[in-house]
Amino acid sequence: MSRRDFSKAVKRAAAARADGHCEACTARLAYGQYHYDHVLPDWLGGEPELENCQVLCITCHRLKTADMDVPRIAKTKRTSDQAISIRKPRQIRGWRKFNGEAVRAASRRD
Question: Which chain regions cross the lipid bilayer (predicted)?
Answer without folding.
Answer: none
